[in-house]
Amino acid sequence: MKTVASQSAKGTSEKILQAAKWLFAQYGYHGVSVKKITEEAGANSALVSYHFGGKAQLYRKVLEQQAEKLLRLAEILKEPGQTPLACILAFLDEVKNVFLKEPESIHVIYREFLTPTAVGNDIVRQQMLAFYDRLTEAFDRAKDSQYVKAETDSRRTAFVLISIFAFYLVTYSYEAISESKRLPGADDSEKLRSVYLDYLNTISTGREQLQ
């Protein structure tokens, strides 16, 4: 019975987390009430306090989960047996996949980054800076091994690539890019990939051809 009860409680907390992630991504921390979250999750309002300690702690949990997801992707940047530039492209491809399949995961982080709250800004600043630093370090390795032009500024390059994703998120609705003829490609994935692939090829020494 305890096992069943434990699984049920875990299922309920997960539903609350998923509902909160989607709502916070759409409306921001201040635009979402506990009632709205639990209605979306099909749960009792009291369970937010029971499982998470309140709305603020729930918001922090959502941010922590999504930021950790991005940081785990950064492990690709040191993939054994791959060139530094190939690792960077593989990393960007995985970020793209998360971005397109679970846009709310990225959106909730960017929303907090762009309109910070006292509740969650410390998490996003710390984790996003770590994310940025790891990409910068990857470009340093690519320069050292002569896959990227020596005059390339690693920090600025990492900033540009992160900005490509931010621009897509802020400028387009999730469907609009599919209908746009401004970028080449058959679908969202190809269109978004074409942008960062072209940019990587402009800073590449030509030692490795990226496709």
From TrEMBL:
GO BP: regulation of DNA-templated transcription
The UniProt record lists the keyword Membrane: yes
The keyword Plastid is annotated on this UniProt entry: no
TM helices/strands, residue ranges: 157-174
Source taxon at top rank: Bacteria
Pfam family, one: TetR_N
GO molecular function terms attached to this record: DNA binding
Keywords from the named record: DNA-binding, Membrane, Transmembrane, Transmembrane helix
InterPro entries in alphabetical order: DNA-bd_HTH_TetR-type_CS, Homeodomain-like_sf, HTH-type_TetR-like_transc_reg, HTH_TetR, Tet_transcr_reg_TetR-rel_C_sf
Record domain HTH tetR-type: where: 10-70
DNA-binding region: 33-52
Protein name, per record: Transcriptional regulator, TetR family
